[in-house]
Each structure stands twice: as C-alpha cells, then as structure tokens.
Design brief:
seven-stranded mixed beta sheet, globular, 36 strands
Length: 1083
C-alpha cells in the first residue's frame, strides 16, 4: 500500500541516511538523557548542583575582595558563562574525550560519580559497554515501515515542487476591515437578540407581518443612532457595548465623555468609525412590537449614509424598500440630504413618514421656550411637506402631519420616541381612566387647540381670562418634557422623583444609586420608564407603509422591464407577491464576504416564488434581454442569511417579500442582477414566458469627478485591475474604464467618495500601493448657435450622402430626457402631445423624433426633417438604424476632446440613399452618419461644458465675509444666505464649478476657524467661458489663465491627457467638397 504525501516527503532523507550506516548499530531515541554510559553521565541535575556549590564558595569569600563601592577586587574567578561552557564541553566530550586527553579528568569524574552512586542507591547499575551513535545515524522518528507495515513503499521526490519565490511558511496577512461577531469584542455576546432566531424567522417569512423600510436623511441627523435605540430595545445589550470600555469596575457610574461613546451598530466598517460617518447602507431585521396591542412585527430597515457623495447607497436601498423613514434634526431642520432623500422616494413612488429627531437640542442647546419650540417643530414639518409636494406632485403628494399619524417625535440619544396617539395613551395609563378616549385626545394635541381649565374642554382660541394658556401640544407634551430635563439638570432627587411619578403609571421610584448618575444617563433612564418602548414609531411604520404584498404591484410597475399588460404567470406572481409562483429576485447590492474580501454576498429582495439553499438559479445581468442572452450565468445558492449588520442568521429558504443575503451567485454580477429559477419546477406556464430583468439603479447625484490610477510597481498591474473590478461591485455609482492612452480611470461622485474607494483598493481588494493622479472632472460638449451651413458627408463608395445641421436643444428638454419624463417608447400620439404642449413643437416635428443619444436617456435628439417630395422615405427608413447608431456613436465621444455631447438637436435635412442594399450597408452608413454629426456640430459654435456643484454651508453670522471671499476666488457665487429659524446658524447656498471644488472644504474651514461646514453635490451643467477652438489664445505654463481662456485651456489639457493632439483636424471630420464650401464662411 501507499502512505500519504507527508510520509513520502518526510521519510525520504531518513531512509537514505539509514542505508549508509551499519545494520548492527543500535540507536538512542531522542527522549534518552545521554549518549554515553551511565558510568560517566552528567545529568542536568548534576550540573545545577555543581553551579550551586560554586556560588556558595564565592559567597564565603572575604569581604575584603570588594571595595567601598561594591566592586570586586579579589583574585580572578571563572565567570558563570565559562562554567556553563565547561559543562557543555565535558558533556560533549564525555568518557571518550577524557581518554584521548589523558589528563586525569577521568579519575576526578569517576570519584564524583562514585559519590553520587552512594547517595542514590536506588539507581540501577548500567553496563560499561556503551556504543557511540554518530550524528548522521541518530533517529528521531520511526520509519514508515515501522508505522505502516513492511509492505509500505516510500516514494522520494528528488526535486522541490514549490517555486523559489513562494515562502515555505507564508506570513498570515489577515485583512480586517469590518467589525463582525467573530473578531470583535463588540460581538453578539454584547448585543444578543431577546427573541429566538426561529421566532424572528417566522415573522420574516410572513409578509403581512413585515415592513421593508429605508431610513434616510441628512448627515449627522441621527439615523444610525436611531437604529442603535431600536437595537437596544430588541437586544440584550451590555454596558460594554453601550459605553466606553475604560469605565472601570462600575459600569453604572458614567462620566460625561464616556456616555457619548455609544456604539453605532450599523457602522461596521473600520473607516466609518474613524471618519465618524456612514459610508455603506447596512440592512437589519428587528422584531418590534406595536404600541396598540403589543403585537410583534418584523421590521426590515436599511440604514443609509447621509453624506451627499454616498446618495447612491440610498438609491440602492430605495429600490427594494416599500417606504421611507425620513429622519430630520429638530434644530437644523431640512437640509440638502433631506431634500435628496425625498426626491429618491418620489422617484421610486414609495410613501414617506417623518421622524423629528433630537428634540432634546431644542431644550438643552437652543434653550427655546416651550411655545417657541412648538413653532420650530411646526416649521420643520411644513418645510418637509413643501418638498414632498414638489417631488411627488400636488395630486400624488401624501403630506406628513402629526394628526394623520405620519410624524413621530423623539431623541435617539436618550432612546425615546412618541406620536400624539402614543403620548395620549401614556396619559390614559397614568390616569387609569377608562372614560378617556386617547384617540380623540390625540387629535387635539396639535394645531390651534387650547384646553380650558374651567370648562374642561378644548377650544380653537385661548380661553378668555386665561392669559398663560398655551396650545395643547405645549401644555401636555413639551412642558412635561422640559420639566423632566430641568429637574435632572438641577440635581434635586426628590423633585425629579415627583416629576417622573407624573408620567409613570407604576409610580416607579429610582434607586439612590441610579439617582447618582450623571445627567445624560439619568435622563435616558427616566425616559425608558416613561416611554417603555418605541411602539409609537412602530405604529406609524405599520400604518403608513404598505406591507410587501400591498406594495408589490406599484414596485413592479416601476422597476420591471417586461410587458405588464400580459397575463403571464410570472408577472401576476410578482404583482401579488406569490411565494408559490416563478422565482424572481432583484439584487441591488454586493457585500464583501465575512470570510474573505475576494468573494461577495449578494443582497436583494425576493419578489415572487421562494428561494432555497442549493437552488440552481440563472443570474441575469443588466445587459440581458430575451434577444441577447449572453449576460447570463447559472449558479447554485450556497447559503442564505438574514442580515443583522454585525452578525447573520442562517435560513434555509426566503419567501416572496423578504430581504435576504445570498452566497454563491456573485461572480457574474457587476452592479445589479435578476435571479430566476434555472429548473422547470416553476411550472410550464411560467417557464414559457420571456424573462426580463429589472431596471438598473438610477442616482440622484452624478459621478463627475475622475482620477487616474496606476500601481507603484508595474508588476502589480493585474492585481490593480482585479481590485478595480471589485470596488466597482461594492460602490453602486463608481465607474472604471481604460482610456485609449492606457490610463485606468475611476469616476466617482466626489473627493471623499473616491478617497474611500482608493482606501478599499489599497488595503482590501488589491493590497498594493497605488499612485493616484490629481482629480479632474468630466466635461461635456455642446453648441450655442445653429450650424452656419448644411453639412453633408458621403459614404466611401460615393453612393450615399447625408446632410444635417445642429442647433441647441430646448432648455429643460435634456433634463426631462435624463429624468425619463419623456420616453421614446411611448405611443407616437402621446410623444407628440408631450413636445407640442410643453415645448411648442409643431405636430410634424414632434412625430419625427428618431432617437435620443448617446443612450436611450441621453440629452440629445436626432430628428428627421426631410420632405417626402425630396427624399425617398422608404430608402431612408431602410438605413434608419445605421444612421441612429452613427448619431449615438458621435454623441458619446464629441469632436472637441472626446467628451459626451449634451443638449444638442441634430436634424436630417436631406439624404441620398443607394437603391442597392449592398451599397447601403452599416459599414458605409454608420461612419458617414458620425462624420456628418461632427461636421454639423463644429459649424454651430461648439462650446465646452463643465459640471457645477451646489454648495450648502452652515455657518455663524460672523463668518459670512470669509465665505464670500473663498467662493469668489474659485469662480463661485452665493445664491442665498438665510438664517435658520430659532437658531444662530445661517444657511448659505452657493454655486461652485466642480473643477474648483477640490480642497474647497479644507480652505473653508481654514478661513472660518472651523466654524463653517459645507457639503457640495452636483447641480447642473454650465458652459465654460471662452472658445475652445480659438488658436490665438496662448497658454503660459505655471500661470493662471484668464476667465475668457478657460475653455481653450481645459480642452487642450484634456486632449493631452488622452494622448490626442492639441488641435482638431478639420480634414478628419469634413469631406473635401464641404471644406471648399466652408472657405470664406465665418464659424
């Protein structure tokens, strides 16, 4: 028989060495203490005894051998190292060495041995015929035959199969970029769910008891801390998780600084914790009880980032959510992040509810009187409703007011939330009165409602004679809250107990140890007794956000690319959220696997059918269609989980309507994907239908900042390319491409967005050092006039000729096309009505639109403006597809610097098409159409366009001058500066060219001493001042160009970076006959 490879390699040298020695020699195993006879042995115990004896002799030496400073001045003695060396030499030489020396050491050692033998009478006598074993004959392990038997064959590998550059023992390089339950002290043991996982799974698999909610809002408005409050309610959270680790033995004695160390549970990435902001959207599923009956529901929430650069994460979460929870800071009010969140919710056509967070800031920081605090809250709600009405439209807007149970108040820092109804129910519990109708009481707690103490009734105006009467919201809600805060700050235990007793039906009395806590933990403890749960928040989610079954039809109509009017089984199953129908799963995000960042787990929503472990599924990419099935792969689902941020709950199946994390299907997914069953178990009716995918994600912000990257060592280029592919998977809006010059370009939404992506590339996905070029922006090309003459281009065979002109597109039409307010697939009558009613086009022109470019939602229009009397329409329509392809090719890469063309209308005025099909093929028409587009563009006063950022700055009043100066130096200008009501803060809104925004925030903080904070995001495109084709402009190195020369400078630098010449060759785009016609024409 044959032994394992380990035995083969290990015993090869042992068999070789044993064959060279005599077969009669005996061996001594490695556990024996000596190699010589015991007659002359020197054991380690004997050596220790001899050392101790010498130390005793040294101690008996006269004290005169030391001077007054303690230095030894006596005769020379052997050092301890010399003694050890002598012992080692004696042990190595042994009896054999002493015989060769003949120096009498033998007799001395024998005398010592005899004395030791007398002391140790129990030691067994040994023979003097000791055999010396040489080093090459030593045997430390048994041979393979001794272990496996005589019939074992040993194979010797004569050459090393391992490459020289591969280390024998590789270093363990563990990439740790996330906080998970396995490798962190902040693990599941510190936040263990109170209910059993089986109970949560049962709720999660019941659509009527589930809600899928996206939590969105502005930066630092308390979204993640709100999730922390929900985690504390549903998990047994230890103090080590809630507070700082350096508290000592008593975790209840919390200092002011340590209390602020509350862990953000959904900020799992290490760089999120260092930056103190969320970067990735993280889902969780929590069992939350409602406030009416205490019934538990499964609430799946998506905690999203608030920074404007990461709004692509909000778009990904919104695609599979049934509603939005908009978190707004009560002090700051509506900001740009709030506005973007509402616009994303309106685009996905899902309802919104409001959570007015941080109402404690009105009391503690702003110190507003209760009446002013009411007006502040009312103003914040009105601002939100104005945005909702503008985004949804007056017909579809579902406004949020406290009276319709769509607004919740609270403080995530102190862990409480309430609605009008839940607060009214608290009063009912305190009074213990069955006559009090808390629902009717709640309707009188908002607006102009005053309580008359004499008549015990509510009135719309203040009662006569009661001058101190406040609105009911102030009297019954704000004033008790103010009282609790003031009593806690005043450090009066007895009065604080009385104030708490007014709220608590059980008259809970705080212990003296609890009263000694600092202010913040004491207030939090008090509110945990007043508001025992977040039932009010759960109530508005259950009341205002539909369950997966109710919201399925609206979501399918928005995201599915297939025909919805058909009565196929697949469409019906998705519209009804049928768990027994054909499988359909929409994947919106990829998360790095917890085991290795080289693999990814796909997160999505099951829209119909049931996904099970070990199911074989088809992964349909974004480019898949029934006509082109190339972007399709068959994979097997290896694992399914319920994602809980820092840990996962494994499940065996995921029914329709649920959010699930899937392993084993990520290899062919680029951004998003659609999963359908690869087997025929769904039924013949469902499998006979054509399978369509879900629409790709749409982003509220545009990626206009790009950088060039290259590895520090050229040999690491393959690693960098693979790393770029991986970061493109994890960032929804990130784009990577290779220019013709060979540069690897990364396009993102802003500086911090690209900085986070490069950090992941260096430390996680590529693990190499990367050089990054200075950031630049994406430009665009446009025209400002109509073409000076009719431009034509002939095909290479001279049998076809196309004539076009270019002119600026109607203002606003490009934005409508990009926003998909107008779609070319509409019926012709509907499309014509849109152009005639909104842009005053004539009916003939409205019906002659051929295409948008460069894509189906590109902001350019190709129109057929030919007359049937002059052009053979049948021949023209036969080459229509080829002309459209040339148009889209030309608008994708413009003639100035190969940047996309924007807001330009191209009209076909004349066309001469050959009647022979062979002479009018795509190879002839497509490049001719492209050259005609370029020539018409260049004769219509071409200009360069740059992206412009909208900047929102929070600043005190005394920093306004510095802000104006910083903006003016960067070609920016202020649009408005308005004071925030109830606060000393001003909100400055400005416009700033994106190319001037690099380093703007650092410059702003430096000039305002850190008191101003700004956020910038893409707003619109603007024409760069100057003519990019003006050759008279001379650019001087290391000198800033005048404003009128910027277009020429940007054009030349962009062409250089792409490896192109500085000037545009007219002969490349113009026919010779057209060049002759251009002579004498001023462009």
């Amino acid at each position: 028989m044959f032994c394992s490879d380990f035995v083969h390699s290990f015993f090869s040298r042992r068999e070789t060495s044993s064959s060279s020695s005599s077969s009669n020699n005996k061996f001594v195993t490695n556990h024996q203490p000596n190699l010589l006879s015991s007659e002359n042995k020197h054991t380690p115990d004997n050596k220790k005894e001899r050392k101790k004896e010498r130390k005793r002799k040294e101690e008996k030496m006269d004290e005169s051998n030391y001077d007054e400073f303690g230095n030894y001045i006596g005769p020379d003695v052997d050092s301890e190292d010399d003694l050890i060396e002598d012992d080692n030499n004696e042990e190595e030489d042994g009896d054999w060495g002493r015989r060769r020396r003949g120096d009498g050491a033998d007799e001395e050692m024998r005398g010592d041995d005899e004395d030791e033998d007398e002391e140790n009478d129990e030691e067994e006598p040994t023979t003097t015929n000791a055999i010396v074993v040489l080093a090459e004959d030593k045997k430390y392990y048994p041979s393979s035959k001794e272990v496996y038997g005589e019939d074992t064959e040993t194979l010797v590998e004569t050459e090393d199969a391992q490459a020289l550059e591969v280390p024998i023992i590789a270093s363990q390089n563990t990439k740790r970029f996330e906080i998970v339950s396995e490798d962190s002290k902040l693990d599941i043991s510190h936040a263990k769910m109170k209910c059993k996982p089986e109970f949560l799974e049962m709720l999660w698999q019941t659509p009527v008891l589930s809600r899928n909610v996206c939590i969105a809002g502005h930066l630092h408005h308390g979204k993640s801390s709100l999730v922390d409050a929900l985690v504390e309610e549903t998990h047994d959270v230890s103090d080590a998780w809630k507070y700082d680790d350096n508290l000592g033995s008593s975790s209840t004695q919390l200092s002011q600084n340590n209390y602020n160390a509350l862990r953000l549970y959904t900020d799992t990435r290490l760089d999120e914790r260092s930056r103190e902001m969320s970067i990735k959207a993280v889902p969780m599923t929590l069992p939350l009880a409602d406030g009416k009956h205490g019934k538990t529901h499964s609430i799946s929430i998506f905690d999203t980032p608030g920074h404007a650069n990461f709004c692509d994460e909000v778009s990904a979460a919104a695609r599979i959510a049934d509603g939005f929870l908009i978190v707004v800071d009560a002090a700051e009010g509506v900001m740009c992040g709030t506005e973007k969140a509402i616009k994303i919710a309106a685009r996905e056509n899902v309802p919104c509810v409001l959570f007015i967070n941080k109402i404690d800031r009105l009391i503690v920081e702003l110190k507003l009187p209760p009446a002013d605090a009411y007006h502040k809250l009312r103003h914040v709600i009105e601002e939100c409703n104005a945005l909702i009405e503008a985004a949804y439209g007056p017909e579809n807007a579902r406004l949020c007011t406290p009276l319709n149970n769509r607004v919740c108040f609270g403080s995530s820092l102190y862990g409480f939330s309430f609605t009008l109804e839940s607060f009214a129910k608290t009063y009912k519990n305190v009074s213990q009165s069955d006559d009090l109708d808390h629902k009717q009481f709640a309707k009188r707690l908002w607006g102009d409602a005053y309580f008359d103490e004499e008549t015990r009734a509510f009135k719309k105006k203040p009662p006569v004679g009661q001058h101190d009467c406040q609105r009911s919201f102030v009297q019954f809600i704000l004033e008790p809250l103010y009282k609790l805060f003031s009593q806690a700050v005043g450090e009066a235990p007895e009065s604080f107990q009385r104030a708490l007793k007014e709220f608590n039906r059980f008259s809970y009395k705080l212990k003296p140890k609890e009263l000694k806590q600092n202010t913040k933990p004491l207030i939090k403890l008090a509110f945990s007794k007043v508001f025992e749960s977040h039932g009010g928040l759960t109530d508005i989610l259950l009341h205002s956000i539909p369950n997966p079954i109710e919201g399925a039809e609206s979501k399918i109509s928005r995201t599915y690319t297939g025909e919805l009017s058909t009565s196929g089984r697949r469409v019906r199953a998705m519209q009804t959220c049928d768990k027994d129908g054909p499988l359909a799963v929409q994947i919106v995000k990829l998360y790095p696997s917890t085991k290795s960042p080289d693999a990814f787990d796909a997160f999505g929503r099951v829209l119909s059918g049931t996904l099970c472990v070990n199911d074989s599924v088809k992964v349909l990419g974004e480019a898949y269609s029934p006509d082109d099935e190339e972007d399709c792969a068959v994979k097997t689902v290896s694992h399914l989980w319920i994602n809980e941020a820092r840990y996962r709950i494994p499940v065996q199946s995921a029914p329709a309507g649920s959010w699930v994390l899937i392993a084993g299907v990520d290899q062919s997914i680029v951004k998003t994907a659609t999963l359908v069953s690869a087997s025929s178990k769904d039924g013949e009716e469902g499998n006979d239908e054509d399978v369509y995918t879900f629409k790709p994600l749409e982003f509220e912000n545009k990626a206009v900042v790009k950088i060039a990257v290259e590895p520090l060592h050229p040999s690491d280029l393959p690693k960098m390319v693979e790393g770029l592919r991986k970061i493109s998977k994890t960032y929804p809006a990130l784009q990577t491409k290779v220019e013709e010059s060979g540069e690897h370009i990364v396009v993102g939404m802003g500086e911090i967005y690209l900085d986070s992506a490069m950090k992941d590339l260096r430390e996680v996905y590529a693990d190499i050092e990367v050089k990054v070029a200075d950031p630049v922006v994406v430009f665009a090309e446009t025209v400002v006039e109509t073409s000076a003459l009719k431009c034509f281009a002939e095909t290479p065979n001279k049998r076809n000729k196309i004539t076009m002109i270019a002119e600026p597109l109607d203002k606003g039409l490009g934005l409508d096309i990009e926003s998909k307010n107008v779609v070319l697939e509409w019926p012709k009558k509907h499309l014509a009505n849109f152009f005639t009613q909104k842009y005053d086009w004539d009916a003939l022109a409205a019906r002659s639109v051929w295409a948008f470019g460069p894509d189906s939602d590109g902001p350019n229009v190709l129109m057929d403006d030919t007359l049937p009397s002059e052009v053979d329409k049948d021949l023209l329509m036969s080459v229509r597809e080829s002309i459209v392809q040339g148009f889209q090719w030309g608008t994708r890469e413009g003639p100035l610097c190969e940047e996309p063309i924007r807001e330009t209308k191209f009209k076909i005025l004349d066309a001469t098409i050959s009647s022979e099909p062979l002479q009018r093929g795509g190879g002839q028409i497509i490049p001719t159409s492209r050259r005609c587009v370029y020539s018409a563009f260049l004769t219509a006063q071409p200009r360069l366009m740059e992206p412009v950022y909208a900047v929102e700055i929070q600043t005190p009043a005394d920093c306004m001058t510095a802000i104006y100066n910083v903006l003016s130096k960067r070609r920016g200008h202020v649009v408005s500066d308005v004071a925030k009501p109830g606060t000393p803060v001003y909100i400055v809104k400005a416009l700033l060219p994106a190319i001037e925004s690099f380093g703007f925030e650092t410059d702003l903080r430096a000039h305002t001493r850190g008191m101003a904070f700004g956020l910038s995001y893409f707003d619109h495109w603007s024409v760069v001042p100057g003519d990019p084709l003006d050759r008279a402009i001379q650019l001087r190195p290391l000198e800033p160009s005048p404003v009128s020369h910027l277009a020429r400078e940007f054009c030349i630098k962009t062409r250089r970076r792409k490896g192109m010449g500085e000037d545009i060759s007219a002969s490349k785009f113009f026919d010779s006959s057209l060049l002759e016609a251009l002579e004498g024409v001023t462009l």
